[in-house]
Protein 1
Amino acid sequence: MKLKCLAILAETNVEDIKSQIDFWISDRAADCTALFHNLQIANDKILKCCAHLILCIDYAVDKTFKETELKMGFDKLIQANKILRSNSSSVHSLGLVALAKLVSPSHSSHSVSMYNEFKEWMSVNGYDSASFTGFDSNRFGRIVGLAREFLKNRDALMAFFDAVVDENSNKLVLAVHTFISNPWFICCNEVYSLIGEILIYPLMDLLGIDGRGGDRKRNWENVKEFVDAKLPELEKLRNNFANTILEEVLIALRRQLSSMDYFGSSTECSLDIDKIQRAPLTNLGCESEFAKLNNRIKIA
């Protein structure tokens, strides 16, 4: 439907648009597979958005957290009556959401926010308030960024709550106090930070997300080299530590990469190797343009 609308706006037809496109880049959602099938897009024209590999990693890690909570018993890991619970979310996800609502600049105008109070308290009590940007981050790398921000500022948060906050003043404050003092929540953030150092941040550097990685050459050959080196490294770590989380991450990454010929053996690859090096590594720009198109269609 969107492609037909685009064709109408461009005063052309779908087949003409298809003939002008060298590669189609999808995210990790299954509906893209159905779209390509319906449009009869050949396999040698299909790529995966490399940025969405980060969301794939996020999903795999959070899945392991939730399975652990189910096996151990949610109530045994945290005082469930003191938090804003959701059956579809892990303790880690719930805690980061609660922190973002209470002490992020994007929520600072809300009545429940304590962002400004916390920043002021930090500066008065000798903490580095200038480096505290709040629990706010972009879509890709958001979770690991929040995890690191929490670990960096946990001592200050605990001292702030002990000194000036009534933990029972409202449900959000009670939930945040419960999370930041909970061993399981702290453990999840430590694990996530480690995954970030091993995998997520190197991938963000490679792709230049949020301006990371500086000015470097970025193409599909670089991504393949990264993947070919990183997967064996993760396998070694998994084998050494019998790590369930790394096993889930490996399964998720391989599932995403296996749907693209380029990450198979060179004899199996049917993609135009020279042409692919000039193809974008992500579909983030396309997502932005389609969001604008959606808005135009809604207005019309």
Protein 2
Amino acid sequence: MALFASLLAILLALVAALADAVPGPGARAHSCVFGYNNDFYVLGGVGTLANGTIFMKTPYPFTGAEESLNWTSLPDPPWQTIPWVNSQPTFSCSNNRDGKVFLFGNAVGFAYYDPASNAWSTTQPTFKPSVSMSNLMNQSGVASAVWPDGYTISIFVSGPQMYLELDSQNMTMDGVSVPGFKEDYGSFCMDVVKTTPPLPVVCGGSTSMGYSDTCWQLGLGNLSTPFAALPEAQDACSLIAFETHFVVWPGFLSTYYSAGFPPKPINPDMYIFDMNNRSNGWGTIPNVQGSAYLPIYDYIGATVMPNTSTAVLFGGQDIFSTSYSSVIYQFNLSTNLWVTPFPSPNLGPPPGTSESGPPQKKSHVGAISASKSSGPRAPQTIDPKVYRSPQVPYGEWYAQQQSEQA
């Protein structure tokens, strides 16, 4: 009887633990991710879960298997569920050094989460005469990033195209028009490079007329200007700034349209650009890891965890628009090496390692030919006959192309 009672107590405890367990954010793309106070956060996005408004955190550094992470649910943000990864209204978010999370875009325009009250607020900032709430609402494209000071937040919107800065301490917002950036571009990537002074950078993007390969540095006044061309025109990229350089994880490359099916290259290289040595142009971080470590996914959430050199990449959508990912990757921006414990053990050992040995030195960063880094180019246009609208899944688009060619 005593043994039975003990087993029953263990079983009841297990059931209670499972009942209290919070499932993770699930497979999703276009989520906003960031780190704060020893936690990794995932906010919003589109994916396999019905609730696109999720807001969750899990302790960092990660321990154990990916599937065993201990997630905590936080209050849902005040917005609509996004029907598609790059359909209007899009959104972005950034957090400041006090832990407040600021939401930009969607139908709401502006909202922020205060960890002190564990609640969202839609109280508007004080706008300078040049900007208003209408500049943030229902945008084709919006991206944001926080400065090294931890309080200034850069926001870029494309309909109409404007660069804005939020002083998140004093809750004031200023902004200027960026007329040279094509209106209604979406799915561009952005971060703030830690130069002196800091430089907000935005790269890529697309419209129904084609893709952009241009990178812009942004600023108030007349500081916004194109400064470089990506090795390939693309959208849905992820941009991570670290020290004085930034790394671009490629998104959907324009060359996929002419590469056949499946598209090639299967694992595109990552790009790296040093803002203090611009004449060197682009370098590459060769993708020697194999498909398990950087598959072709776009709309990946990416962030550098505070007080580390480690970038965390979460989720994404496969380029065929048929599935989402819930995989977490870690990449060391100082060594250009993938970091354990993720990718998950079932994906095999990290690159440059054996099953039991320490990481080995990875091949050095290579250079891209000067012809691909000689300065900004005009947005690349695509024959409308072979253009896939961002709202059309790749597989459906390809089947249509094959039908028309038959």
Protein 3
Amino acid sequence: MKLHRMPFVVQKMLIDEMLLDDRMFLSFTSKRTCRLLGMSKLYAGRALSIKATLNTDLNSDGVEVRIENEDKWTFFIPYDKSDLENVVCWKIDGSDVRVSHEVKEIGTEIKKHTVSIVEGAGLKQTRKLLEPLGKLLRHLTSFLNFDSLHCICHTLPNGLISQLECSLNYTKIWIRREFWTLHGWDSEDRAAVVTPKELEVLLSKIKSRELKLNVKVASAVYKYRKHPESIGGGKIQKLILQSHTWVDFSDLPAARAISFPLKVQSREINTLLKSWVAGKNREMEILDFEIGEFTDRTRNFFFTGITQHETQLTVSDRERFLTYAFSFDLLSDVIAVDIIREGDGMRATVIEAMLWPPLENNWNRVPYSKRTMFVIVWSEKNLKKARGEYVDNWF
């Protein structure tokens, strides 16, 4: 008797007894069967990870999707055609997709499955190459549960961003670009080129606890405009911008916490603070960036056109909050003032300080120390954390 014709109670009992491999093979038989498996999702491991790689061996270039459950299942979408054997057709998200499936036995109990998706292989320069990625993500998450979902891009193939399923909650998405040299991988981060449409997807469509971007837009004059859907939304908890030539500091992307690891210009800082006082950038609750050389003149420029108030955040609350939210050994030469937002009277504390690195870098402290500015908005979550209270879903 076929599974979908059995009584519901019997279906659920049978599905509950199935292990990962059984469910995987059944899910690829039909979309109807896959929906049945979704009635009782299986916890499949700590993470479902997506990785875009660029290697010197052309046969191994591609996007990898791995179920981190003893690495039993790995899916690979190659950039170039490969001489793959045993090509079969599986139903992935209801579509026929050609795959090559290999099984390797590890010991007596563990089997490792490698599935190469050959649909679209050879279309390296087109977006059709990665169309199976979106189907695969929807398919796997329809009947499996994971603690987290990661996407790490060491290169950015054409069409990858558009295939990231927007209905999912990502734990982290990191996008950068690496280069291969005669001496190996270039360890320096390079900015990957994205289109304005791809930026809109990343910053206003996708839900992510941490989004780390080292990207640039081909147009030197382009500035990102916040999408209306993202205003008041909170799809991104922490946004790390390693390059920011495309950022409009008067209207930052919507995120609860924003970090700029590289130096921000004084005029950009002034624009940001004035826009917050005027009522913009309301989604931002925590901000940090490097400010470089610090003098009375530069400090005055930061606050041009802004009324400063004596801070009401106690030293102990301030230190407690910063210690929790940021990684450092100690702060020195601290200056703190408050600014107040027009309209609702919301207060924020602006802190300028010399930040020293964690103790593990003690042997070479001076080159790593930097002048940093923090902005802490007096939101309910931030005030609770400053007082040492428990805050659910902090980041």
Protein 4
Amino acid sequence: MLWLPRANSRAMRASWRASPHRTLATARNAHKPLEARVVYRGSPYMRKTYFFLAGACFVLAGLNFGSFIQGYLSWPLFSHDPQNPPQLVRKELRITAATGTVLISSLCGWYFLYAPSRMVTRMTIYPQSNTVGVRTASASPARWLPKSVKAWPLFQRAGHLSTTDPRERILPLHAIYRLQGSAVGSEQSLWQELAKKRVKVPHGKLANITTPKQDMQDTLMLRVGGAKLAFQLSAMPQRTSVLDESPSRGIRGLCQRAMRSPTDWGGAHAPGAGAAERAEYARRQQRGFDCEPWFLDRTTFDQLFPLDVTRYKQKK
């Protein structure tokens, strides 16, 4: 665990905001024309249809169970004494218990309905405005609100919605940080896992590993603007891809296709897409179904979106 003093954390955070590395100079040097460039493409760990179905099940179950409680809640619940049989509780208590049940189940259902709007499938940098477009698996529920309500600061914490894509949010570059995880670390984690299984790892893949262990995870969590809920994106590559093996077949491949959404490759074949992006898109199309995340450059991604050092607390 890396422990940083709180005072130094604030100073480092301020230095990141003012540092030239937090601008898009890297993208400008790599691509001289100031064109938008996609730096990440991925998919949620489960199809959004399943999230919506689970949310609807929670809500319907809560309504059904709440109706049952309102009409039949008795006390004591389990009584075998014939002289003290269960009695129907007061109407006020039954209505209160039923309301609480419906409220709790609705909150659980709302989580599943809301979760896809926090799962990142594409990140695009716009050098001309020094902004980032964060595209999610589903559109924000706030898009159904009136324009006057959507303009409230409460609904602008995670950036404003794009005028061309309702699933994309536009924010300044300095407003996005990593809360946990690392693009480089997730790849290093896979190589370490393969090495433990005695799989032959290419030379140099396990050398110079400097990523902290807590950042070697399957997914990355992003702090986007002032949003209280973090955004999530998958980052670990697949074994079959890094080892140039055939994609999963049989039951395993079928389950993967049934559970996972394909990688968001929208616009990858457009004329404005980068050469590396088009080449990777063509390669994956030949391999068949694809749900593996893609980074333009993992190291550059970690530099563009540095770790939020305020997550580290001073060790007492």
